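User: Need the bound-state model for flavin mononucleotide:
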Amino acid sequence: MKIIGLSGSPTPISRSNWLLQQLLAGIESIEGVEVLAPVRIRELSAQHLLHADLSDKALTEALARVAEADLVVISTPIYKAAYSGLLKVFLDLLPQDGLHGKAIVALATGGSQAHFLAVDYALKPVLSALGARDTLDAVYATDAQVPKDPAGAYTSTPEIDDRLARAAQHIRARVTQHQAQHAAHTHLSTIKSGTPARAEALHQAA
Ligand SMILES: Cc1cc2nc3c(=O)[nH]c(=O)nc-3n(C[C@H](O)[C@H](O)[C@H](O)COP(=O)(O)O)c2cc1C
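Assistant: Bound-state model below.
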């Protein structure tokens, strides 16, 4: 199962991106998981993003990696009671059903709990419009729940560790489900491709 992280913060040292990195680090060793190179939208060309100009190789490669993924982990800061504008300009470049068939995990950080529901009322309708139907539980953290350690690096609090561990468990369950579906599909294809040969063999034996 291919998993990609999509980071929507314009800030170079970002709490929501840190949250994303923590989750990806926690799932990369799950058997059957392939973590694709994350898309940090701030590193893409602003000019190409804002002008919806797909002549930029890095941008088209980022869009292709999202298309390739089975599960997308999207992280964003809460800006003005919604997700970031940077994330929106990237989502606007996905095809109309660009998230169809993909599982989604949303991660968000905000200054306080006040806009905790922004993931539900702002981000999820957009994901749904892009075809996403399988949205796993989101992880929301306030800035106080992702403090800096004395060296200035972000660190987690036990409640955020718990939420990330739960998100990782849900992803693990999706991986198992994905593998079972893949195995059933392969089995069915084998039966289908074997049927004419068996029928022919039976015919000749008769
Ligand atoms: C322009 C701007 C708008 C913000 N608006 C909100 C907001 O409406 N609600 C909120 O809870 N936090 C708000 N914040 C705080 C950020 O969401 C918070 O600091 C977040 O952790 C930043 O994530 P980042 O480090 O990944 O960029 C805002 C911050 C900025 C810079």
